[in-house]
Design a protein that fits this description.
The complex is a heterodimer of chains A (110) and B (114). With 110 residues, chain A is mostly beta strands. In chain A, 0% of the residues lie in helices and 57% in strands. Chain A contains no helices and eleven strands. Chain A has strands at residues 4-6, 11-14, 19-25, 30-38, 44-50, 55-57, 60-65, 70-75, 84-92, 98-100, 104-109. In chain A, the strands form two sheets. In chain A, strands 2, 4, 5, 9, 10 and 11 form a six-stranded mixed sheet that branches. Chain A has a five-stranded antiparallel sheet with strand order 1-3-8-7-6, with no helix packed on it. Chain A is globular, with a radius of gyration of 13 Å. With 114 residues, chain B is an all-beta fold. The N and C termini of chain B lie far apart (37 Å). The chains are: A mainly beta (110), B mainly beta (114). The A-B interface holds A 4, 8, 31-32, 42-46, 87, 89, 91, 93-103 and B 33, 35, 40-45, 48, 55-56, 58, 90, 92, 97-98, 100, 102-108.
Chain lengths: 110, 114
């Protein structure tokens, strides 16, 4: 079983739609959680950290359920510029390494 | 301010050859991590260095080695290249180690093994 699992997609949605990504992780010692965005042939960039209380940054909302070992990302009012691969990432305490899911590819259509 | 820099940007090698990839962290960052990203997959952790010492190692064969220099830059070496080593090699830097500091990625080195 992979440490971090994501639906690879691809997701193709119209501009303005709401899209949700889900992710599960297997290591209960995971302590930090993130969503990264990666544009084609570019490096990953931190989109947002994910906290148990949930957090929101503009059109983006991230949620963490530690009991279910589940992380989500919601994008509202999607823009063409949101087209990218979204990577679910966990950091296991003490290991100090980022464990990435395989990424979910999103394409926003005009 | 300069971000993480990596060199070269692209590299083509043949099976059995050796390669050295280089990374310069953001100024003031003392920790460097290396990741391998095969097409269609997320990055996989290879090594982490902090204060010139190896602090973590992923599930990669001994053909992969790395080091960190006194100026905190780092090199990743891969010996006896295989076709399967073709990937994007990413370097990430962070302020320190063990605190969950954000890791900032460089643009990567795209290695093709023929």
């Amino acid at each position: 079983r992979k440490e971090v699992e994501q639906d690879p997609g691809p997701f193709n949605v119209p501009e303005g739609a709401t899209v949700a990504f889900n992710c599960t992780y297997s290591n209960s010692a995971s302590q930090s959680f993130f969503w990264y965005r990666q544009d084609c042939r570019k490096e990953p960039k931190l989109l947002m950290s994910v906290y148990s209380s949930g957090n929101e940054d503009g059109r983006f909302t991230a949620q963490l359920n530690r009991a279910s070992q589940y992380i989500s990302l919601l994008i509202r009012d999607s823009k063409l510029s949101d087209s990218a691969t979204y990577l679910c990432v966990v950091n296991v305490q003490g290991a100090q390494k980022l464990v990435f899911g395989q990424g979910t590819r999103l394409t926003i259509n005009p | 301010d300069a971000g993480v820099t990596q060199s070269p940007t692209h590299l083509i090698k043949t099976r059995g050859q050796q390669v050295t990839l280089r990374c310069s962290p953001i100024s003031g960052h003392k920790s460097v991590s290396w990741y391998q990203q095969v097409l269609g997959q997320g990055p996989q952790f290879i090594f982490q260095y902090y204060e010139k010492e190896e602090r973590g190692r992923g599930n990669f064969p001994d053909r992969f080695s790395a080091r960190q220099f006194p100026n905190y830059s780092s090199e990743l070496n891969v010996n006896a290249l295989l076709l399967g080593d073709s990937a994007l090699y990413l370097c990430a830097s962070s302020l320190a180690w063990g605190r969950g500091d954000e890791q900032f990625f460089g643009p990567g080195t795209r290695l093709t093994v023929l």
